[in-house]
Amino acid sequence: MTITMAELPDLGKHCGLGSCKQIDFLPILCNFCQTYFCKEHIFTDDHLCKAVNSSAPKVLGKIGTHECSFPNCCHRDVSRLECPGCSKHFCLTHRFPDTHSCISYVPPKEYMPETSKLVRKIQEKAVQLSRPMVGKSSKMSAKVQLMKIKQKAIGLNNIPQEEKVFFLVKSEKGDIPVFVSKYWSVGKAVDSIASLCNVVNNNHKLNVPKLCLFKEDTNLYDRTGAKIMELVESEFSHSGSTHTLKLFISE
Known about the structure:
Distance between the termini: 93 Å
Domain AN1-type: 9-57, 62-110
Low-confidence stretches: 1-5, 58-63, 130-134
Radius of gyration: 43 Å
Strand content: 15-25%
Helix content: 10-25%
Shape: elongated
Pfam families: UBL_ZFAND1, zf-AN1
Number of helices: 4
Order of helices and strands: EEEEEEHHEEHEEHE
Protein name: AN1-type domain-containing protein
CATH topology of the largest domain: Ubiquitin-like (UB roll)
CATH superfamily of the largest domain: Phosphatidylinositol 3-kinase Catalytic Subunit, Chain A, domain 1
Organism: Artemia franciscana
CATH architecture of the largest domain: Roll
Number of domains: 3
Largest sheet: 5 strands, mixed
Keywords: Metal-binding, Zinc, Zinc-finger
CATH class of the largest domain: Alpha Beta
Strand order of the largest sheet: 8-7-11-9-10
């Protein structure tokens, strides 16, 4: 069934502005001229209300609007949202006391402060325990590996047992356990390890990539004159540590 406007003559009203006359099903009555207008022309400035005079209260030229009291906020509301603390009107965004720095606002106290403090301590301790103990962990893993490679390591037979320092060397030939003398320089140890691992070594030549030992990403090229025992005593390396033998292009 179709309902036409002729059948509902009292439904809605035409906008009182002569240039509009649009029918509005929810017309709004102007408080000054007592004329109905559509939502687009309800404000006094929009329909050039002649009933407004200098003695009538004005709210920024808008009927029934309330400007938000928050600095630099231009939002206006038809209904007044008054803050119970400072009795000022604020828009929906700034209506809460903590959002407009209300003079009566008191920050809530921390619930169960002692419990919160205890929880923070437990969390901090858990974070500390989760951090890797790099120095101790490296030394311990070297000791464990030393026990595994000691019996299989290869090296020069004339090195006394008390002078031996063991390494697991990763090279192009695979993982090979070796031992060197703690009194050797890093350069001499590299030459011996290269020979033991059957890796080509051109360190005696100029302007060619140098064969070097690496501990993780640290290159020992600049320590070729240092003694193996100095690296062990400074805990830069340990007997049983893993080193990589690979080429390094020096500048």
